[in-house]
Write a structure and sequence with these properties.
Blueprint: E1 8-11, H1 23-38, E2 46-49, H2 51-60, H3 62-84, E3 97-103, E4 114-117, H4 121-131, H5 134-151, H6 165-177, H7 187-205, H8 213-228, H9 231-239, E5 248-254, E6 265-270, E7 282-287, H10 293-296, E8 302-303, H11 306-315, H12 320-326, H13 330-333, H14 335-352, E9 356-363, E10 366-374, H15 379-391, H16 397-402, H17 410-413, E11 416-417, H18 419-424, E12 427-430, E13 432-435, E14 438-444, H19 447-455, E15 460-464, H20 472-477, E16 480-483, H21 491-499, E17 502-505, E18 510-513, E19 518-521, E20 524-527, E21 531-535, E22 540-543, E23 548-549, H22 555-567, E24 571-575, H23 579-587, E25 593-597, H24 607-616, H25 620-644, E26 649-653, H26 667-677, H27 681-691, H28 703-708, H29 710-729, E27 735-740, H30 746-767, E28 773-779, H31 782-786, H32 788-794, E29 797-800, H33 802-810, H34 821-826, H35 843-857, E30 862-865, H36 873-882, E31 886-889, H37 894-906
Parallel strand pairs: 14-15, 15-16, 16-17, 24-25, 24-31, 25-26, 26-27, 27-28, 28-29, 29-30, 30-31
Antiparallel strand pairs: 1-2, 2-5, 3-4, 3-5, 6-7, 6-9, 7-8, 9-10, 11-23, 12-22, 13-17, 14-21, 18-19, 19-20, 21-22
The protein binds adenosine-5'-diphosphate and magnesium ion (2 copies).
The site of adenosine-5'-diphosphate has 16 residues, from β3, β5, β9 and β10.
């Protein structure tokens, strides 16, 4: 609808050019103002200057813009004059305007609104005479000079210590008068404020406040365009992926006045509760107020509905009599306006079929709407509103699925801080919101001590420079984890998310001193045992104990999940290493285990001793002896998994990490190990040195371990098959899938598959019974993807290990990428962290290709993914498009993946 020479779109009673679909051209605010006019809702008339003009401003500057739109703006003003019956610039009865910015997506950091534009020393007298309300006229003028001086003339505090210079003057005048509220200032005081403001502008800016309304108008319009490129806006755009080319629109609109006295006011409202999603109209208003007074907190706003007012009074501990006298609801105070407001909000919500956030003004008993938009909401509200609206027939099932951002389900899965308590808490540091949730506990610096403290019944937060696999158990018993180093995919972050444990990672300001058992932030030092609280959803670290409350899993959450299952094609499995994880995963709707990392079982209890024995053994019999000790423990683990997952597939990966991960690297622990194993320290040191690799992730790991030490594969296979037989005997339906890691050649696969088959056959022989099982492989080296047809001829299933595949395809390690990746993302070299969201063009291409090649030789080949990406919504959508059978992710991300899979199915994987 954009035409080359139309740049100004009017809205009003007699004509409206735009509508809600024109957000790109008119911005969100402008498009919705037009739409409201079309719906017959009362909106002050105005016009919108399109976003395209902003681009002209950015490229060609102010004069080009004036040239381009002067005639249209003149016509636009004439349009408003016609609608409102007042003339712009007429000092006797002036038409006053507001100038409002409005991009496609609502964007903090843009220019603030300017109200009452068109006033000057003559017009203020005209306004006073015409309204018969001198105080109102000067209140409006005072506000205008202040806003214009700040926003257009740039009169802002010069340092962060300085207060807003206008507010300083207001406070001085109030002080002089001995009053507390703006409303207590009289006309003479307001006149004095205007004078002082003008003097301030003259002194600081070196120019007079402009008296010509047209000059005021152009100044404001250009200030909006200018603000598109201010630093705040640029930073926000960067963070939210908003292209500079979008530009902002400018809305110029006739003023309506909420500051005309006790029959006027202004307010904001939500058609439903944005925190809980409850279908309850709610909001706040102020009598005799203008603009942002309600949100600015200068007076206590009143509640719109009686119900809301009563709830508010209860929280504020205000009795019913006092409430009714001092803080009555709009419903009680202006029943007629209230009725109109209900009509408008109902109409708007039905029309947009979504919860609306609205702004309105009451001028002498008349209601005017000033804005509507889809309201921001919590994850919980998102779910509830979607499901309520589905039941109310406002949206259909597919739309209900689209309405919930999968990522936001996180908030429903973890305990949360009490919002009121959080406001009072003192934030001492900030890190990355690595794993959501709320944690409160005493600081401990060592994983083993975390366990010890918890055994004594304490609650702890594990604070580490960074974590390593040795810290697993300490992490699992801690309330939360705080690390000074490491990103969103650091060990701590990944493990914490997997555990559904709150974690703040990479809090750079935190300095951990292990020997002193302290953590220092700035000039403050915190000792072991002090209480701190972590908000894993925001990355905030608070001092002391911030009270938490259990997340409420409403019935709607379950209903949404059922709906997701109805539409999704992808299966969703979980990465789970223990029966407890498996149980949690099943509770979240996982339909199997896509990855069990057997090595995680090696750290538990005294298993690590047996593992170390195996590593230290210098001959085959020695290794076999150690492995024989591990066998019953592993078998027990697998039995637990098969029991919990009865009827569902369980994919077990053979030992994967390099062996050096299982031995201590510091002398103190090596000494302990030496004593435990009854060998000299020197022997331990020698072996640890032996295991040292320059690049362990590309070293002796994965199936390379099983090929050099087939006895490990034998033991693990035996444990799996025996466990399967045992559980079947107990009546469970066992579906075991044995997975060979890090395969790069068909021969590697075959060598390991032979060991597995022979071992299984041996067990079957001994037991005199058989059970079906599958042998598959991970596709996680680029070479495996390239020869996926040859491998597919041998393997019964593929599971993409996208963590390693990404690492090896990109050629940088996940653990070291933190040094440059943030820089790359900021610079636009990568759009996203490829370890968080699959690199669709590169790594994704390998996935696609491998699926096609694999299925070309084995059409029914089962294919899944078990990297971190399995729980990333954008990646899930991509995998849907690749034709995968399932994704596998950590238990707490199962609901997120289910929803993302449904959205992919609904919108065809777009
Ligand atoms: P934001 O984008 O920050 O929400 P707005 O452009 O919505 O800024 O303006 C803020 C407030 O200014 C509005 O909520 C409304 O109260 C007031 N306002 C804006 N335009 C007018 C107008 N034409 N008449 C009366 N009040 C207005
Ligand atoms: Mg607004
Ligand atoms: Mg791997």
């Amino acid at each position: 609808m954009a035409s080359e020479n139309k740049h100004v779109y009017v809205f009003g009673q007699s004509r409206t050019d735009g509508d809600a679909k024109m957000k790109n051209l008119l911005g969100g605010k402008g498009a919705n103002l037009a739409e409201m006019c079309r719906l017959g809702i009362r909106v002050p008339s105005g016009f919108t200057i399109s976003t395209e003009v902003c681009t002209v401003y950015t490229k060609q500057g102010l004069d080009a813009v004036k040239e381009l739109i002067r005639a249209e703006v003149t016509q636009g003003i004439a349009f408003i004059e016609g609608e409102m019956g007042k003339r712009f610039g007429n000092a006797d009865d002036p038409l006053l305007l507001s100038v409002r910015s409005g991009a496609r997506a609502s964007m903090p950091g843009m220019m603030d609104t300017i109200l009452n534009l068109g006033l000057n020393d003559e017009a203020v007298a005209g306004l006073a005479a015409k309204s018969g309300n001198e105080r109102f006229a000067w209140d409006s003028y005072r506000r205008f000079v202040q806003m214009y001086g700040d926003v257009v003339m740039g009169l802002k505090p010069v340092s962060k210590e300085e207060h807003d210079p206008f507010e300083v003057i207001i406070d001085a005048v109030k002080h002089q008068k001995g009053v507390a509220l703006d409303t207590e200032l009289e006309t003479a005081d307001l006149k004095e404020l205007v004078n002082r403001f003008k003097g301030l502008i003259r002194a600081r800016v070196g120019r007079e406040f402009p008296t010509d309304p047209w000059e005021q108008l152009w100044g404001s319009v250009m200030a909006v365009f200018q603000s598109w490129n201010n630093e705040r806006a640029q930073v926000y755009r960067e963070l939210n992926d908003i292209p500079e080319s979008w530009g902002t629109a400018v809305n110029v609109q006739a003023m309506v006045f909420g500051n005309l006295g006790s029959h006027s006011g202004t307010g904001v409202a939500f058609t439903r509760d944005a925190a809980t999603g409850e279908d309850l109209f709610n909001g706040e208003f102020l009598i005799n107020a203008q603009g942002e007074d309600v949100v600015a907190g200068i007076r206590t706003p009143q509640q719109i509905t009686l119900e809301g007012s009563r709830r508010w009074a209860e929280l504020a501990v205000i009795g019913e009599d006092e409430r009714r006298a001092k803080y009555p609801s709009l419903e009680e105070l202006m029943p007629d306006i209230y009725k109109q407001l209900i009509e408008a909000e109902t109409k708007l919500e039905r029309h947009y079929a979504d919860m609306q956030d609205i702004e309105f003004t009451i001028q002498e008993g008349r209601l005017w709407m000033l804005q509507t938009r889809n309201g921001k909401r919590t994850g919980a509200a998102m779910v509830r509103i979607a499901m309520d609206m589905l039941r109310q027939g406002l949206i259909d099932e597919k739309e209900a699925l689209r309405r919930v951002n999968p990522e936001r389900l996180n908030e429903l899965l973890h305990p949360v801080f009490d919002p009121a308590a959080m406001k009072k808490a003192r934030s001492i540091a900030h890190g990355l919101p690595a794993s959501p949730g709320a944690a409160t506990g005493q600081i401990v610096f060592f994983a083993d001590e975390a366990e010890e403290w918890v055994r004594k019944g304490r609650r702890v937060v594990l604070v580490r420079q960074e974590t390593s696999p040795e810290d697993l158990r300490g992490m699992s018993v801690a309330q939360g984890i705080l690390t000074a180093r490491g990103g969103m995919t650091s060990h701590a972050a990944v493990v914490a998310r997997g555990m559904g444990k709150c974690c703040v990672s990479g809090a750079g300001a935190v300095h951990v001193n292990y020997s002193a058992r302290t953590m220092t932030i700035g000039s403050e030092t915190f000792k072991e045992g002090e209480w701190i609280s972590l908000n894993g959803s925001t990355g905030d670290v608070y001092l002391g104990q911030v009270p938490t409350k259990e997340a409420e899993l409403t019935g709607d959450f379950g209903a949404l999940m059922e709906l997701a299952d109805k539409y999704k094609r992808l299966g969703v499995r979980a990465n789970a290493d223990t029966p407890a994880d498996a149980k949690a995963a099943r509770g979240f709707g996982a339909t199997g285990i896509g990855l069990c990392r057997t090595e995680h079982m090696f750290f538990e209890g005294d298993r690590i001793r047996a593992v170390r024995e195996m590593i230290l053994a210098d001959d085959l019999p020695g290794r076999r002896r150690a492995l024989a000790k591990l066998l019953p423990m592993q078998r027990g683990d697998f039995e637990g998994l098969f029991r919990e997952m009865s009827g569902l597939p369980v994919t077990i990966r053979l030992l994967d990490p390099p062996l050096h991960e299982f031995v201590p690297h510091d002398e103190a622990n090596q000494q302990i190990m030496a004593e435990e194993m009854n060998v000299p320290l020197g022997v331990i040191k020698l072996r640890v040195d032996d295991l040292h690799e320059f690049n362990p992730m590309m070293g002796h790991r994965g199936c390379r371990l099983g090929i050099t030490y087939p006895e490990i594969t034998e033991m693990q296979t035996r444990a799996i098959i025996e466990a399967a037989l045992n559980m079947r005997k107990q009546g469970h339906d066992v579906k075991a899938e044995i997975m060979i890691p890090l395969v790069g050649t068909v021969r590697e696969f075959n060598a390991q598959a032979n060991v597995i088959r022979q071992t299984a056959a041996a067990v079957f022989q001994e037991r005199g019974e058989e059970i079906a099982y599958m042998i598959g492989t991970m596709i996680e080296t680029p070479r495996a993807a390239l020869i996926a047809d040859s491998i597919g001829a041998q393997a019964e299933f593929f599971s993409f290990g996208t963590n390693d595949l990404t690492q090896m395809t990109m050629g940088f390690s996940r653990d070291d990428a933190g040094k440059f990746l943030p820089h790359y993302i900021k610079g636009g070299i990568y759009e996203r962290d490829p370890f968080q969201s699959i690199d669709q063009k590169g790594v994704g291409l390998l996935v696609k290709m491998a699926v096609e090649k694999g299925r070309s030789v084995r059409p029914k080949l089962k294919v899944g993914v078990c990297g971190e990406h399995g729980g990333d919504p954008a990646s899930v959508v991509f995998f849907h498009g690749c034709g995968l059978d399932y994704v596998s992710c950590s238990p707490f991300r199962v609901p997120i993946a289910r929803l993302a899979a449904a959205q992919a199915a609904v919108d065809g994987g777009k």
